[in-house]
Amino acid sequence: MNSIERRLNAIVNNSTMAIFLMNDQQHCIFMNHAAEHLTGYRLEETLDRPLHDVIHHQRPDGSPYPLDECPIDQAFPERDRMQGEEVFVHKDGHFYPVAFTASPIAGDDGQPIGTIIEVRDLTEEKARAAALRESESRFRNMADHSPVMMWVTDPTGYCTHLNARWYEFTGQAPSAGEGYGWLDAVHPDDRAAAKQAYVSANAERRDYRVDFRLRRADGLYRWTIDAAAPRFGTDGQYLGYVGSVIDIDERREAEDRLALSEEQLRLATEVGEIGQWDVDAFTGAMFWPPRVKAMFGISPDVPVTLDDFYNGVHPEDQVKTRGAYEAASDPLLRALYDVEYRTVGKEDGIIRWVAAKGRGLFNADGVCFRVIGTAIDITSRKAAEIRLRELNERLEQEVTEKTAERNRVWELSRDLFAIIGFDGQLKAINPAWEKTLGRDVATLLAMPFREQVHPDDRQAVEALMGRLGSGETVERFEDRVRHANGSWRWISWTLVPDGDLFYAVGRDVTQEKEAVDELERAQEALRQSQKMEAMGQLTGGVAHDFNNLLTPIVGSLDLLQRKGVGNEREQRLIAGAIQSAERARTLVQRLLAFARRQPLQPIAVDVGQLVAGMAELLASTTGPQVRVVVEVADDLPPAKADPNQLEMALLNLGVNARDAMPEGGTLRISATGASVRTMGGTLKRGHYIKLSVADTGMGMDEATLIRSVEPFFSTKGIGKGTGLGLSMAHGLAAQLGGALTIQSKAGVGTNVELWLPISETSVGIDEVSTNPGFEDKASGVALLVDDEEVVRASTADMLEEFGYEVHEADSGEAALRLIAAGLAPDLLVTDHLMPGMTGVDLARTLRESLPQLPVLIVSGYAEVEGIAIDLPRLAKPFRRTELSSRIAAILSENKK
């Protein structure tokens, strides 16, 4: 074998393609290493043998070939080149698909001397194709069984698949819906908008949502929402869209009904001639619409105050009106404002009767900040009442003449009839009293009526007597009267005064009252939950926006103060403004904590010092009737806790204890060390600080104790608590790795224990140390990214003062374009939450190409959700020194 033959032999044997050489008799005279590996035979085993005798090839479907039909065997030297697919049989017996090419070989004289056959194994390729078909089959099966309509497009926007639900809903044939045929089922008025939304999104390869009306199979149109997202392959190649269409017609109908209901309410208020009023309890400012001003004889455009209100009330009605308002705004009473009074027109002098109702609104500290309600002009009704009284006087004579008929009604009525003196003594009652209260008439007449009334209602009864004594007829008054079995029955009264007596007609409404109370409790719990949810969302959003607003304010004031702008008086004003801004920043942090946008920040806390610091506040909160005792063990180790949240929990527990002791008592707060040495319960084995809040109040029964930590469960009654105090304290302890336990007994008192884990660090170690800032001028290029222009401008001024050359961008995408254009930053300062790319996403992207780039994330939220712990961060608003020290710390850390 010469050198050329050796090189050719090496090339053939190193080929990945299996190669067979056949002579003019179609017997194998050579096969390379790839062919040996493919067939399992060595060259010496195949020499001078027909190829079909070695590999037993078959058709692609597995059936054997007759030798005269075998494509490879037909590739004799005198025939043309052939190619195709077959199934080979390996030496070990397994089958595998192949693709082959058979070409004749010509000798030096141009005559055929043999055949060369090239074979490629298709096993993996066939397996991938089968897997793809299986995947597509699974997707189509899943899509066809989906409860919503689904569709798929190719990269050109051509709809390649609509699931069975689409065709069931629209009644289209499969061939009609593909491509852009699906638009034929869209309402003609919505078709252009639907197509434009899709085409625009497809051009930008972004998510999109669009509402349109879709024709149902029965020809009716229903509102639907179409939502879709682009698909990309593992190599990033754009594959088209996948989307879903959901029937939202019922939701749209509900929204329309809600709008109609709101309009009906507005019209009802107008038709009913009901006026609304609103009083700011802090400033005394009042909101009166023209209808209410007309009740006081005041022109629509004249501003009014609380003094205008009192001055406009008739002198004889001012005391009761003022008393009703004060009771409604009193944090302890929180009474319903329900009063009728006369007004004297300020401009026209006309006397009018007004019926007003309302209630006070109280903040979390129990302070009334608003009183709102309605007012109705009842002058005509009062005139009718006067006429009614006159009519009653005339009828009284007729009743006297028809005593027999009256006695019949008196004896048979199920309502309670009574004649009562203003001394509270029953003068006469009908037999219905016996059936309703379980006592005979003689016994009831011998008992003063006041003694039969529930103690909680006696004050209202005394006030009622005053109203009756002034000659006022009371059309509806409810109180509780004792039954012979000790229970209480709710009675709804109508009372008419007559000289030294008054007549009363009562009806037992106990069952109706219990049903109404249960419904009101359920509705109040729902309203409270919705209110807290809405307040949390609103507070979190407002606090975030305030942080963005405060950032340029704090930065600008800090710049003016540092540069000594203005005279001494102006500097004092700047200092005052800075102090107010700092207070605003603290307020925003509290708002974020309330909205739960600020997670726990546990540090090492001296519980004894914290409790001692809270003692005075707890004493002033609980009032003089409650004695506050503080007991703290000596040498307590620090506890792991969030001091702000712990103070709030301690204050909530103190308020709960105060409410449990309406007649006064002792509130004992103690802090001791404790250990858990056995497994079991909610506490892990370890060392804890046990913070106990115990009272000598009314305590809880077993059923109440079981539900005590449920959110919104409260025994204080409607309007007297959120039911969140114990649940928030329970959640705080659990989040810290501790627990909350409660021991309580009805009539004895309650002891709530907060178990806090011992901190592994000393007090003060967890505090974030402040870097003194730059010792010298900084230098280099700073890339500043923030979507708020005023915030970005303020921060840029600070960075330029530090010595940086600042380049600004209003989004993460704009920042990446600057980098792509050649900008090489030495520092990245970026906001976190921005439209499109977040600050964290930007930092991660840039660090792929600039791994040593110093990064500082700033955010209007104090929360760290979504911000990795390895990315330094700074909360808005911030001053120059805070920004300086934070950047200096980052640069110092990068040098290590």
UniProtKB/TrEMBL annotation:
The modification 4-aspartylphosphate is found at D831. PROSITE patterns: HIS_KIN, PAC, PAS, RESPONSE_REGULATORY. The keyword Transcription does not apply. It holds the Pfam family Response_reg. Gene3D superfamilies: 1.10.287.130, 2.10.70.100, 3.40.50.2300, Histidine kinase-like ATPase, C-terminal domain (3.30.565.10), PAS domain (3.30.450.20). Residues 82-134, 208-260, 337-390 form the PAC domain. It comes from the Bacteria. Residues 541-760 form the Histidine kinase domain. Keywords: Coiled coil, Kinase, Phosphoprotein, Transferase. Its EC number is 2.7.13.3. Residues 781-891 form the Response regulatory domain. Residues 4-56, 135-206 form the PAS domain. This is histidine kinase. It comes from Sphingobium xenophagum.
